[in-house]
Write a structure and sequence with these properties.
The structure is a single chain. Helix content is 5%, strand content 40%. The protein has a single domain, classed as Beta Complex (Metal Binding Protein, Guanine Nucleotide Exchange Factor, Chain A). The radius of gyration is 14 Å and the shape is globular. The chain has 139 residues and is mainly beta. A 7-stranded mixed sheet has the order 6-7-8-9-4-3-10. Strands 1-2-5 form a 3-stranded antiparallel sheet, with no helix packed on it. Bound molecules: zinc ion (2 copies). Belongs to the Gfa family. GO terms for molecular function: carbon-sulfur lyase activity; metal ion binding. Keywords: Lyase, Metal-binding, Zinc.
Length: 139
């Protein structure tokens, strides 16, 4: 098991995720990610809620309705607004954790890209596995 630390920009919130191996990145090119991050895509890893632990500070919630019509709860540091993970209710007991906020994330492998139909024209495909929206196995 690998325990990886994450922290927000101001340092008031810290967290860990536990994964079987070194975490990996899934790039998401959806419009919500563009708006929430201000960048062309976000870096994510899906982790069971029980393997995500907030170790310092408190997170606030911002809630919106996802494509499925289900709620998405975004957790963020109330001081600096860094958004360490969100809960797509449609995913069940899993969080989508922003893998780019984890220590050593520059070394993680990019394993897939989702919502690739919204990839910016200047952005090259990085992962071999690229899905127009989501892979058939998930929603
Ligand atoms: Zn912060
Ligand atoms: Zn997205």
């Amino acid at each position: 098991m690998v325990v990886t630390n994450g922290s927000c920009h101001c340092g008031q919130t810290k967290w860990t995720i536990t994964t079987e191996d070194t975490p990996t990145h899934v790039l998401c090119h959806c419009d919500a990610c563009k708006k929430l991050s201000g960048g062309p895509y976000t870096l994510n890893i899906v982790v069971p809620i029980s393997d995500v632990k907030l170790t310092e500070g408190e997170l606030k919630e911002y809630i919106y309705k996802g494509d499925s019509g289900n709620e998405v709860v975004c957790y963020y540091c109330s001081n600096c607004t860094t958004h360490p993970w969100h809960h797509q209710k449609v995913n069940g007991e899993k969080y989508v954790v922003r893998s780019g906020l984890l220590e050593g994330s520059e070394k993680f492998k990019v394993v897939a890209e989702v919502y690739a139909k919204y990839r910016y024209p200047f952005q090259q495909q990085i992962a071999a596995a690229s899905f127009e929206i989501m892979p058939p196995s998930s929603e």
